[in-house]
Amino acid sequence: MSTAFLFPGQGAQLVGMGADIAATFDVAAKIFDRANEIVGFDLRQICFEGPAETLNTTTLSQPAIFATSAALLEVLRTESATQAIVPSITAGLSLGEYTALYAAGRISFEEGLTLVKRRGEAMQAAAEASDGAMVSIIGLDEEKVRQLCEKAAEGDLLSAVNFNCPGQIVVSGTVAACERAAQLAPDHGAVKAIRLEVAGAFHTSMMTPAAETLGQALLECDIKETAQVKTLANISADYYPDRQAIVDGLTSQLISPILWQKCMERLLAEGVGQFYEIGPGRVLTGLMRRINRKIRVINLSSAASLKTLIEARQATA
Question: In whole angstroms, what is the distance from residue 192 CA to residue 169 CA?
Answer without folding.
Answer: 11
